[in-house]
Structures are given as C-alpha cells and as structure tokens.
Amino acid sequence: MELSPDDVRDIVRVLDSSGLDELHLELADLTLTVRREGAAGWTSEQQVLRRPVVEGGTEPTADTEPERPRAAVAEGLVAVHPPLLGTFYRAPKPGAPAFVDVGDVVDVDTVVGIVETMKMMTPVHAGVRGTVLEFRTDDGEFADKDAVLLVVDPASESAGLGEGAQ
C-alpha cells in the first residue's frame, strides 16, 4: 500500500480534529510517527525504508516486488532511489555543506540527502555500505520515485569502513 499526498493530508486533518496526542503508522515501506507537542502543534518523525537495488543481481523471486523500470547503472553498483517523489536536496539547508560528496564512504544508515514533499522533509539513507561514485539528480531537482539520486559502489566499502577497528 502506498500513501498519496492526499492520503497524508487526510491523516493530518483527522489527527488535528481528534484528541489523539500521537499516531504511529507502519506500512511495508514507511514508518511515520506524529506527536502533538502541546500548544505548539504537531511534530513528525519518519523513516522511509527501501531495499537497495543492486543492478545485475539475482533474478526476482515470487516474494519480491515486481520490477519497475529504473535508470541503468553498471552491474554490481547500487542505485539509491528517493523514498517518495519530491524535490531532492543534497544539504540540510541552503548554504550548508552537502550530506555526502562523490568519493565519500557511506554506511547503510548514512543520510545522503533529503526529499521535500508537501513541506515535509524525508531523509534519504544510502541503504548500502560503499563509496559514492556519482550523483544523477542535482540539488534542488525534482525526483520521481524511481529516479536515481546517486550511485554507490558496494565493492569499495572496505576501503574506508572498519579499517583499524579491532
């Protein structure tokens, strides 16, 4: 089940008119927690989870999602896609340094950017360990749900992570 922007608006309207102080919603690809912060109104915390797609990997099985067309990346590389459609930003705010740059080593939980949809900022996690090879979506550019934001090389993940740790 996917939530449309209209679905999210409806949920917020229902919450505003209810006496609830908190809502926690979990779907297959989305976890959303919204809390009422006294007179200040609502705050939200969300994490959109998407499995990384390794191009040229194994054949899909009956229990995986049907394949949707995606922009091509070289075999063995991972394309990082936005969790939902919206405007992609590489930094937390204008003028701030980018979350990551080409050549940076990322981990599964590393935030590599944010997507703004309806004034809600959703962090984009790398979803894989490796090195950022290139950005395919520019800062401030609109990204469809299946757009490739950046490409990560998981084979190079040992180059910067875990060295010297015993």
TrEMBL record:
Lipoyl-binding domain span: 77-153
Highest rank taxon of the organism: Bacteria
InterPro entries registered for this protein in UniProt: AcCoA_biotinCC, Biotin_lipoyl, Single_hybrid_motif
Pfam families: Biotin_lipoyl
Keyword tags: Biotin, Fatty acid biosynthesis, Fatty acid metabolism, Lipid biosynthesis, Lipid metabolism
TM region positions: none
Keyword Phosphoprotein: no
Annotated signal sequence range: none
Biological role: This protein is a component of the acetyl coenzyme A carboxylase complex; first, biotin carboxylase catalyzes the carboxylation of the carrier protein and then the transcarboxylase transfers the carboxyl group to form malonyl-CoA.
Name of the protein described by the UniProt record: Biotin carboxyl carrier protein of acetyl-CoA carboxylase
Record organism: Geodermatophilus maliterrae
